[in-house]
Amino acid sequence: MTSVIETGARPKWLNKRLVLSPIFDETRSALNSLRINTVCESSRCPNLTECFSRRNATFLILGRNCTRACAFCSINKGLPARLDTEEPYRLASAAKRLGVKHVVITSVTRDDLEDGGASQFVACVKALRELSVEITVEVLVPDFAGKLLSVDKVLASGPHVFGHNMETTRRLYPALRKGADYDVSLSILKKAASFSPNVVAKSGIILGLGESEDEIRNTILDIREAGCDMLTIGQYLAPSSGCEPVHKFYRPEEFEFYRDMAIRAGFKVVSAGSFVRSSYLAEMMYKETKGC
Amino acid sequence: MTDVKLPVLAEGVNKATVAYWHKSVGDAVKEGEDLVELVTDKATFNMPSPASGVLKEVLISEGAEVSVGQLLARIE
């Protein structure tokens, strides 16, 4: 039972099952009609049919163009969009239309904006609050060019989960995350973790970019030391041929190994696997963290 | 008769390559059972059968490229 196509030596366990459901189309058209961008679409995520069929989507705010050029990402690099003051309301409308109970908001990096886009995150959290006090909100923020005042601003708006992804190990930062700084990202997580017991700090790393086992261990320990309770560990898949090639496909048991390592390090909830992404099954992860 | 068409796999991905048919023409197939393996630049997907019946016709053979919305097979 082998494929006739040479899939660039893509291993068998990296087979994503498509979900064929009318809800997929409903979700897609609801998002399109409200002009909502999602990272699910911009990143060409292979979980798209599964998540959209569950009415799960991760909203991407502040436009489609990013001011950074991380080597593992397929989001457009280009002139950033004009700040759209209607966006928070459209986002709340979309959440209402989809009937979601847990909303994940992320953004492109906006080095062109004074606050890195923090006020737009705040406006979105507010708009969701006005819509419903029941909705739990997870933000997944960029590094705001290290401006901790922006981090404070977003934290003060009261998200339930504050996420910032470390993405990769310290050594690979200069090559893969140009413009970012490993210690700056850690300081953002520290800030979030110590802000309030009501906010859970979360981070994510992607494997397969050329890191070693020791480097993964150190990154996991650094994130834990920063105070994060939630961690995701996923497989890097090159979104397009222009991106960094995949250096290694980790086996399911290797993800288990790193999951156990993270749990031993003290994380409350760890999600690890080939198709795990930082906001994959975010609601479930949050509930697990809260013990409900 | 059910037309099996290539669904949207991921956004901005308009084409896929048929890697492997789990069933041959004449085989019985159940709804939800793996029918065909599809390969894109980013990932490999298993597409479940959208209906139960007999695989009547396969229009795209292994190794060939197919576009979103294009007819892959017929199930009766």
Furnish the topology, listing elements before pairings.
The complex is a heterodimer of chains A (292) and B (76).
Chain A: E1 15-17, H1 22-33, E2 37-38, H2 39-42, H3 48-52, E3 58-61, H4 87-98, E4 102-107, H5 118-131, E5 136-140, H6 148-156, E6 161-163, H7 173-176, H8 182-193, E7 200-207, H9 213-225, E8 230-235, H10 252-265, E9 269-273, H11 282-290
Parallel strand pairs in A: 3-4, 4-5, 5-6, 6-7, 7-8, 8-9
Antiparallel strand pairs in A: 2-3
Helix pairs in contact in A: 4-5, 5-6, 6-8, 9-10
Chain B: E1 2-5, E2 15-21, E3 28-29, E4 34-39, E5 44-48, E6 53-58, E7 65-67, E8 71-75
Question: Which structural traits does this protein have?
Answer:
heterodimer; A: 292 residues; alpha/beta; 8-stranded mixed β-sheet; 9 strands; disordered N terminus; B: 76 residues; mainly beta; OB fold (Dihydrolipoamide Acetyltransferase, E2P); 4-stranded antiparallel β-sheet; globular
Describe the protein's architecture and organization.
The complex is a heterodimer of chains A (292) and B (76). Chain A contains eleven helices and nine strands. By secondary structure, chain A is an alpha/beta fold. Chain A has an eight-stranded mixed β-sheet, sandwiched between helices. In chain A, helix 5 packs parallel to helix 6 and helix 6 packs parallel to helix 8. The longest helix of chain A is centred in the middle third of the chain and has 14 residues. The N and C termini of chain A lie far apart (42 Å). The N terminus of chain A is likely disordered. By secondary structure, chain B is mostly beta strands. Chain B has a single domain, classed as RNA polymerase II/Efflux pump adaptor protein, barrel-sandwich hybrid domain (OB fold (Dihydrolipoamide Acetyltransferase, E2P), Beta Barrel), CATH 2.40.50. Helices cover 0% and strands 50% of the residues of chain B. Classes of the chains: A alpha/beta (292), B mainly beta (76). The interface between A and B is medium-sized, with 28 and 24 residues. Strand 1 of chain A pairs parallel with strand 5 of chain B, so a sheet runs across the interface.
